[in-house]
Structure formats: C-alpha cells, structure tokens
Amino acid sequence: MKKDLYIRIFFDILTSSLSWILFFYYRKIYIEIVPFELSKTLIIGTFAATTLWLTIYYFYGNYVDIRRISRLNEFSRTIIQTLIGTLFIFFVFIIDDIENYRSYKYYYDAILSIFIIHFSLTFSIRLMLANSMVNKIKTKEYGFNTIIIGNIKKVNQINKKLQNTSNIVLGYLSNDNITKEINIQKLGNLDDLAKVLQKNKFEEAIIAFNKKELKENYFIINELLYNDIIVKTPAKTTDILSGKVKMLSLFDATFIEMKPIKMGLFQIFLKRCFDLILSIFALIILSPILLTTSLLVKLSSPGPVFYLQERLGINKKTFKIIKFRSMYVNAEKKTPLLSSNNDKRITKWGKIMRKFRIDELPQFYNVLIGEMSIVGPRPERDFFAKQILKQASHYKLIYKVRPGITSWGMVKYGYAENVKEMVKRLNYDIIYLENLSLYSDFKVLVLTIFIILQGRGK
Known about the structure:
- The chain is α/β, with parallel strands linked by helices.
- The protein folds into three domains: 2-138, no CATH class; 144-258, NAD(P)-binding Rossmann-like Domain (Rossmann fold), CATH 3.40.50; 265-454, no CATH class.
- Helix content is 53%, strand content 11%.
- It has 17 helices and ten strands.
- The protein has helices spanning 2-31, 40-59, 71-94, 104-138, 152-161, 193-199, 211-216, 219-226, 237-242, 265-285, 287-300, 348-355, 363-368, 382-391, 408-412, 419-434, 438-454; strands at residues 144-150, 167-173, 186-188, 204-208, 230-234, 255-258, 306-312, 318-324, 373-375, 404-406.
- Helix 1 (2-31) packs antiparallel against helix 4, helix 3 runs antiparallel to helix 4 and helix 14 (382-391) packs across helix 16 (419-434).
- The longest helix has 35 residues, at 104-138.
- The protein is flat and about 80 Å long.
- 28% of the residues are buried.
C-alpha cells in the first residue's frame, strides 16, 4: 500500500507544479501580454505553490488512509482544497501585484484560471487513482481487516454477507460454543476482546447481536472505539429510509457506522495553535490577578500557594494538574474525597475562588506545555476514574482527547460531589466527543465565560 501512497504523493506534486506553470504561462501571454520565459520567479513560485498545495492535502487528511476513497468524495474534496489554495494564492501573491494588472477584470481572470487549471489537472489524476483503488479493493488486493462479534447465528449470517465486500474477516468473538459450519476462526470469548485487539490489527468490527444482547454487552463498542476501530451494526430497512445509513461504495453491505473519536489533522493543528496562543495570552494578561490571588491564598491559611494533584490525561498518561490551593493543608489524608457545597475543608477565600473558578487559572500552564487543552473533558484521579469506569464503560473514551480546563460537562452540569454525579456529567462529555469540532470548543468557551462572569461556579 505504501507504493500507492507514494504514487499519489508523486502525482500531487506533479499536478501542483504543472498547474502553476500553466497558470504562469496563461498569465504572461493572455493577462500581462508579455513573452513567457523560464525565470527565477517561475521556479520559486512553482516551489512555493507546490508546497502550499501539499500542506493543504496533508492537513486535510489525504494521506491518512488512501483506501477509504470514492470518486464522489474525491470530487468534493478536490473542489474544496482547490478553492482554499486558490484564495490563499490570490490574497497573498496576486492581489498585491498591481502593476501587472490593467483592471480588476484581470484579477477575476487570474483567480478563475488558476482554479480551473488546478482543479482539472488534479481531479483527472485523482479520478484515475480512485478507479484503480476501487478495482484493487473489489479484487481483494486491498481491504479492511475485520472482526465479527456476536452470537454464532448472526456471525454466520454476516460473514456470508461480507464475501463480496471490502471487509477481510480475520475471525470472530462469541460466547457460543455450538459447532456450526463457519469458515472463519474463533478468536475467543467476549471477555477476551481486549487481549484479541492487542494481538491483531483490526480496522473494522461488525457487531452481530440482537437488541437485548447488545445492551448487555455495550462495553464492547466502547472498547472498539477506544482502540480506533470503526464499529458497524447491520442496518434495518427503517434505518436506511430514515437516512441513518450512508452509501460509502457500491460493493459495501448496509451497516450503520460508528467512527472512532478524533478530529481531522487540520482541526487538531488549529486547536493546538489556539491553545498555545490563548494560554500565553491568558498568563500574560491575567498576571496581575494571578499575583494577587497568590498573595490572598498565602494570607488565607498556612501552606503553599499552588496545589498539585496527579490526574489522568490523554491516553491515560498521568500528569500534575496545577490549581490555586483552595483547601486547608492536609485536607485529604488517606482516602481521596470530592468537595461539596458546605465542605469545611475549603477556606473562605477558596470558596470565592471556586465560585468564579479562579482556582483553575494556573492550568493555563498545563495547556501551554501540552498536558491539557482549553476545552476538553475534565481529568480525574485514578481512584475515581476506576469507580466511574465500573458504572460507565464509555468513560474510557474521554482518554482519546486532551483533558480541558473547561468542558461541556462543566458548563451543563458543573462540579460533581460524588461518583454518581460524575457519571451524570459524563453524559455531556460524551456528547461533546461525538460532536468534536472547533465550533463545539468555541461554544463551550463562550458559555464558560458567562458562567464565570455570573459567578455560577461551585
């Protein structure tokens, strides 16, 4: 598959370079009406334009998995990427080149010509590559390593359905020990899921349970999603008519698809840039408040200004979360405890800090060094995380993203005083994960600001 990836990158470089050279030729001959010649400007421009297009393709996820493509998807993706690149080139390189354009008409001519040239060349090659990949998947040269999980009857039914699809079934998991005519290997029982996933590189999983069995074994879906495996369940006619099932290709069976929790590369990059910029800005602008708070914490009770506590972050990595100390020293001696509204361990100044969430401000440093994000599910201590996980197997999904200073759970529910409340708040964090985007982050951030200004923290 690497060969196909390198071929795709090669043609992206070729079409990006060629489209710029053709545009440069068109611009010189028909817009500026001067002779076309090989120049230093052309060489530098070709290199810069090619680098720009490849950067856009990379952050758009073109090279993540070149098998998961379709002709329609390639068409829409190429239009969007061409538009982004064309606008960037126009506003950065062309619009300031006033002396070479006799009127605004030539600006429109320039932007339209580069769009048409780049799109035509790029899509024609991508269409050819997409057709080639579709044929390779049809002939099973490429496919997606798949595991089927469920009762033996449904496993057998689904296995037969997958014979002419892009799925390569490596085996199945089932608690049934009934011997049936099935031509795939049994990899273990349902409780062996974690071990089986560690030994094999699955990309997709088909869930083959009836409704009651699925409810009883819902932990399976959470485990699969946590391991970045696409989960599919057979679709009913009502699901198809209601639009829950989207046709990905002509040779796939009908399934409802649940994708792993993740942002696109471009959004991940923008989110990290946003975190860095905002955390630096906050630490500088809020420095008078940070210094004043430090003094008040010191005066409120004996002990250190900051309180460091071990929490679980992305991929369950532990880190030290930093807070202004809001409790008396040694408030928690042995068993970890959660705070409550009338908690006597909290100092008078600590109550004020918590109300306006001032005690959380030092966590901008955690964001700055990459341990946290501005927006994300709140991190918990391992002691409480284990208790939550016993009641809600989907809790482990929050480890797919960086924990945050604020979250949808904090906005809609607030601080939790016990594990039961933590589980309730978790439902909001799962909604956030299912709608993971920069827009969701912005929404959470705005609502958090309102909560702080109104003093509605606990």
